[in-house]
Amino acid sequence: MRSTKTIIFAAASVLALGACGGPGGGSGSGARDFVRGVGSSTVYPFATAVSEAYAKASGAKSPVIEATGTGAGMKLFCAGVGAQHPDIENASRRMKKSEYDECQKNGVKEIVEIQVGIDGIAFAEARNGPGFGLTPLDVYKALAANPFGKPNTAKTWKDVNPSLPAEPILVYGPPSTSGTRDALKELILEAGCKTDAATAALKDSDKDKYEATCHNIREDGPYVDAGENDNLIVQKISQNPKAIGIFGFSFLEENPDSLKGITMSGIQPTYQTISDYTYPGARPLYIYVKKQHLAPIKSLQGYVAEWAKSWGADGLLQKKGMVIAPEDVRAKNADIVAKMTPLDPAGLK
Asked: What domain of life does the UniProt record list for this protein's source (predicted)?
């Protein structure tokens, strides 16, 4: 079972190292001699695998990766330029326009966006579970704080859908700092929410109300925030056949003896359905690189290049459970890595 335990480094020594230089990158004087990455717990095991491969191949110090969650990692990444700030943000969703603007405000002017693969937010149960089959509408009615604008009173899955078991709703899922939580809201809850025409119309007439109605998750017990440790969710549901867990697909794939996937709109979460995006919870995975750190953090370029060496159809990441992106996507992002082309923020939301 893959561990997502956060690697902690000596913060005091990093803070003492000084800045990486000005907006143009500056000199390497006083810079760290290792790469520091933060962010997604979903991307974390892949990032650590690439770190180990890079250190072994280059002889450089192994990059230090922390599983902070995508949202919390973005805050750390965008806080500024200098050795006390991370070089890389691992993300299980795309950077938001508001996060990009925060980066710009704090002097993080050039950000390189690289899609490293694909993942899915998988719904799973224990091997001896009841055999759930859900739809985005079922999940929305079960987990939304105010489905279609009314307080959520559903206690059992049968309350949500008469065809589902009369079992209490108990879902272990990611925290608010997680990109997986963002993907849950945007890919699954919102899809269920939009099935009601009047609610869907709010997107144009009252965006704030639409966001609250479609995205807010109930806090009265049925949804349990399990933190950034996806292995904890695996343990919880494997021990309770009546519980459901939500996490990255790779964790489902790595635990076939204790877990089974739950269909979403009749589609099983599999490598194939995620790679072709037919599974409703499929999503891209990214890393974001602070271009201003390339000069002072000497091993940063090499570490990022190691990602491109690892994401092929028969590469390290595929062996670690990542769903490999199509060939054209890999080629496009390999070119971004080679040229370190900064992100165009025009398409951010």
From this structure: Bacteria
Q: Do 221 and 77 fall into the same domain?
A: no
Asked if 118 contacts 282 with a C-beta cutoff of 8 angstroms, the reply is yes
Return the SS3 of 89: strand
Question: Residue 329: is its pLDDT beyond 90?
Answer: yes
Identify which has the larger pLDDT, 323 or 11.
323
pTM, two decimals, is 0.84
Q: How far is the CA of 121 from the CAs of 8, 14, 71, 280, in angstroms?
A: 27, 34, 16, 9
Measured at the CA of 311, the angle between CA 2 and CA 303, to 5 degrees, comes to 85
Q: Is residue 9 scored above 80 in pLDDT?
A: no
Burial pattern 51-79, b for ≥16 Cβ within 10 A else e, equals bebbbeeeebebbbbbbbbbbbbbebbbb
Task: Indicate whether 247 and 165 sit together in one domain.
Answer: yes
Structural domain range at position 228: 120-282
> So what's the pLDDT on residue 6?
39
Residues 276 and 292 in one domain: no
pLDDT at 13: 31
Question: In CATH, what number is assigned to the domain containing residue 75?
Answer: 3.40.190.10
Task: Return phi, psi of residue 309, to 5°.
Answer: -75, -20
Q: Is 283 or 4 the better-scoring residue by pLDDT? A: 283
* Residue pLDDT, tens place only, 115-150: 999 999 999 999 999 999 999 999 999 999 999 999
- Say if residue 21's pLDDT is above 60: no
Domain presence at residue 106: yes
DSSP 155-207: -BHHHH-TTS-S-B--EEE--TT-HHHHHIIIIIIHHHHTTSHHHHHHHHH-H
Distance of CA 131 to the CA centre of its chain: 26
Q: Is residue 2 part of a domain?
A: no
Beta-carbon contacts of residue 61 (< 8 Å; ≥ 6 apart): 33, 34, 55, 299
330 shares a domain with 213: no
As a whole number of angstroms, the longest Cα–Cα distance in the chain is 66
Number of domains in the chain: 2
Domain boundary among the residues 282, 303, 320 is at 282
